[in-house]
């Protein structure tokens, strides 16, 4: 049987790496990095060089001997409708994965480092589904932004016997507070949708979770919304990027148990 062409990805490992701290990578994740033959690393430009440096710090810490191939990460076309924009972006990322593999000089599992966990508001699994032929997938879970946020604030995720809703800033802005929700975790909110919530809504916000640059703010929306918006803008200017998330609760003291 002849070997597959070098650009074909037969085994793809998606390794969750947490929210920025190398200590968030599990033992299984570190072993997977050591066992991989090739590791694809996205380059998102000079303004996000910190992200590239963090990935390389994790690779160095793992002690991997894999061939590391960097590829230029595409940007979304803002002129397209949202769904079309995302679909076209995912198609292009999959093409660049396979194009990068033309540089591979060894066979074996190909790994990608995924911020947080590949299962939670991350599209890497969906992008992998665009590869042809379809690779054998292995997913190594990682620390999620939700875990890092609640740990940083020493906060229970749920109220006593209460439900938790995980959503996006876009949905919070367009549809308001999710029906029946007691605790709402909001991810991917570049527009700070919490500003439109009642002033007594409690918010626990965090950025660069688990990193030395970590920033935390807690209080009622009426008291801290403007501070979060300004803090977020300043941090984005300073670093060229920001990853943040927040948890919301109504009523009482919101502490849960």
UniProtKB/TrEMBL annotation:
Pathway: Cofactor biosynthesis; adenosylcobalamin biosynthesis. GO terms for molecular function: precorrin-6A synthase (deacetylating) activity. It is an enzyme of class 2 (transferase). Keywords: Cobalamin biosynthesis, Methyltransferase, S-adenosyl-L-methionine, Transferase. SUPFAM superfamilies: Tetrapyrrole methylase. It comes from the Bacteria. Residues 12-224 form the Tetrapyrrole methylase domain. It catalyses: precorrin-5 + S-adenosyl-L-methionine + H2O = precorrin-6A + acetate + S-adenosyl-L-homocysteine + 2 H(+). One of its GO terms (biological process) is cobalamin biosynthetic process. The keyword Acyltransferase does not apply. InterPro entries: 4pyrrol_Mease, 4pyrrol_Methylase_sf, 4pyrrole_Mease_sub1, 4pyrrole_Mease_sub2, CobF. Its EC number is 2.1.1.152. The keyword Transferase applies. This is Precorrin-6A synthase [deacetylating].
């Amino acid at each position: 049987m002849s070997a597959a062409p070098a650009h074909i990805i037969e085994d793809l490992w998606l390794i969750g790496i947490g929210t920025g701290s190398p200590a968030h990578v599990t033992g299984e994740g570190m072993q997977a990095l050591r066992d991989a033959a090739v590791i694809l690393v996205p380059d998102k430009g000079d303004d996000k060089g910190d992200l590239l440096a963090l990935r390389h710090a994790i690779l160095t810490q793992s002690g991997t001997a894999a061939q590391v191939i960097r590829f230029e990460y595409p940007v979304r076309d803002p002129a397209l409708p949202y769904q079309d924009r995302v679909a076209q972006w995912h198609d292009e990322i999959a093409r660049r994965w396979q194009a990068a593999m033309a540089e591979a000089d060894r066979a074996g599992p190909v790994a990608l480092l995924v911020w947080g966990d590949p299962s939670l508001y991350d599209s890497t699994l969906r992008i992998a589904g665009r590869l042809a032929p379809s690779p054998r997938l292995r997913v190594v879970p990682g620390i999620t932004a939700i875990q890092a946020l609640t740990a940083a604030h020493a906060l229970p995720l749920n109220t006593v016997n209460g439900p938790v809703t995980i959503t996006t800033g876009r949905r919070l802005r367009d549809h308001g507070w999710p029906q029946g929700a007691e605790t709402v975790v909001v991810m991917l909110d570049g527009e700070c949708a919490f500003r439109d919530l009642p002033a007594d809504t409690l918010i626990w916000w965090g950025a660069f979770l688990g990193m030395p640059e970590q920033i935390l703010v807690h209080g009622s929306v009426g008291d801290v919304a403007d501070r979060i918006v300004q803090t977020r803008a300043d941090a984005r200017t300073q670093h060229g990027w920001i990853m943040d998330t927040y948890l919301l609760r109504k009523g009482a003291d919101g502490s849960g148990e």
